[in-house]
Amino acid sequence: MFENKIYAVFWAFIVLLYLCAAYFIEIMDVDAAQYASIALEMTKSDNWMIVQHKGVDYLDKPPLLFWLSALSFKIFGAGHFAYRFPSILATFLGLYATYALGRRLYDAKTAKLAALILASAQAWVLFNHDIRTDTLLAAFCITSIWQLVEYGENRKWYNFLFGFICVGLAMLAKGPLGVVIPAIALSAYWLGQKHWKILFLPEWILGIIIVLLVLSPMLIGLWQQWQWDGIYFYFWKQSFGRITGENSWRNDSGAFFFVHSFLWSFLPWSLVALWAFAKRSCQYWTKGADRELLTFFGFLVPFVALSFSKYKLPHYIFPLYPFMAIITAQAMLSLIEKDNMVKKIFVAIQYIISVLIFALAVLICCWFFPTANAVLWSIVVISAFLIIYLHTNISLFKEKVIAMSIISVLMINFVMSLHFYPQLFSYQSGSRAAVFIKEQKIVPEELAVYRLYPNSLDFYSGIIAQVFESPDKLINAVSAHPLWIFTDETGKKQLEEYGAIIGNVKTFNHFHISKLSLKFLNPKTRAGVTGKAYLLRVSGVVS
């Protein structure tokens, strides 16, 4: 009874956190704001088959996120909550699928804990305000796996149909990874259960047909825009090409980039998860060990494969976290019957992690962006007292670990949603300039960008601004009629050197807030790494 009550309370606050973040946090440059502006452009053109960005054909990502966000804009109006809402709904489907899969593989207790671990992992909280295509990929991948595991057990047609529809939706979200992840996990599961014959069922051909039908609107659009180049890019170059080197995207991430990404993004559960994964690895080499291979290889094989990519970002591995959540939940529950010393070690680990999280909250509120907001400090203080009380008064291992961990995660993310991120966005020049543009009722024909191309400017102003790549073309344009020009310090100097007649000048702080640094977070050194952006009213050129 106590377990059900505490789970219900935590789920209520998790849902509140997701919705609070979706409502209060602006959309961040670069990727999320780009996807939102593409969806907005789609609603303005009413052409859903052709994907464009700033009027130019766009190929980099499949269209599902754009379609869902554009539909949400049609219903609710353009805004950051409307952009996120479809993905948040998909996330809760993915959380339920994680619960249902955990129940099928283990039992109800494992399932409930796995879903709670996943929902409270830092990656999943980030997933639902910094919305990218991987959010939908994660939800539909785990849902397809759950449904096809059910089909393998009971041969119900609706499990088969919904499972393959979700494979198609996962591919519409992020490309071939949408079928690769389920294929690896399901193959490992059935081989581990010695049901290898299921891999050769003839109905899988029908499943492929269902997937192609789901993909058909995208494939038609790709053909209209790009012909065979678009089809090849989607099925090979964009995903596998990052491993083979055909894709030109590269960064300086090392072979172990995803290891340290996992350590912070799966907090507060990452250290327990590492122990659980190591334990599961040892089990598979032990005679008579449990042969549930789905979660182990569903996580391990894509993790290793993605580590060979020439271009890596932390969120690439987030769709694998439902597997790790189930592994972690099963291992934590197995500890209940173990030696008390082992349990005390894990309680101590989670307590230390909670203390560090609280230290970060204090840093945010006292140093990074000092605040005397009574609501924020009440959240921090009440959460701290709750953890101390639960730590000293609950004797049950599982409830103690869960309570400390989730309270600390909820606390830090409410602080970040209500205070830290709003302070950060005062340095996102595109969205700040968009507020001024709407206040001044600047029309699309009068707005241009030069040297700075923030997608947040387009999205929050509702204007797809004209893009100028060279000062000569820009000077020719302002010679014909006045323009408002959004640019950086170098662009402003160039316009002045060309003799531009600059009237109104609006100045904004400018920093790439998706790339935080200690120099920026430190108030004493922040000014040294913060640039300026300008919105200039240029009425002509000195002749």
What is the structure about, briefly put?
This protein is of the alpha/beta class.
Helix/strand layout:
Blueprint: H1 2-24, H2 31-45, E1 52-53, E2 56-57, H3 64-76, H4 80-105, H5 108-120, H6 122-127, H7 133-154, H8 157-174, H9 177-192, H10 203-226, H11 228-237, H12 241-244, H13 257-265, H14 270-283, H15 294-307, H16 321-334, H17 340-368, H18 374-393, H19 397-424, H20 429-439, E3 447-450, H21 455-461, E4 466-468, H22 471-480, E5 483-488, H23 489-497, E6 500-510, H24 518-521, H25 526-529, E7 531-541
Parallel strand pairs: 3-4, 3-5
Antiparallel strand pairs: 1-2, 5-7, 6-7
Keyphrases for this structure?
single chain, about 550 residues, alpha/beta, 3 domains, five-stranded mixed β-sheet, two-stranded antiparallel ribbon, 25 helices
Q: Helical element count? A: 25
Overall mean pLDDT stands at 89
Overall morphology: globular
The fraction of residues assigned to DSSP E strands is: 5-15%
Low-confidence stretches: none
**Could you give the order of strands across the largest sheet?**
4-3-5-7-6
Main sheet properties: 5 strands, mixed
End-to-end CA span: 82 Å
Helix content: 55-70%
Number of strands: 7
Structural class: alpha/beta
- Rg over CA atoms, rounded to whole Å, is 25 Å
Count of individual domains: 3
Written overview of the protein:
The longest helix is centred in the middle third of the chain and has 29 residues, at 340-368. 67% of the residues lie in helices and 7% in strands. The strands form 2 sheets. The chain has a 5-stranded mixed beta sheet. The chain has a two-stranded antiparallel sheet with strand order 1-2. The chain is built from 25 helices and 7 strands. The protein is globular. Helix 2 (31-45) packs across helix 3 (64-76). It has 3 domains: 2-336, no CATH class; 338-423; 428-541, no CATH class. Strand 1 (52-53) and strand 2 (56-57) form a beta hairpin. It is of the alpha/beta class.
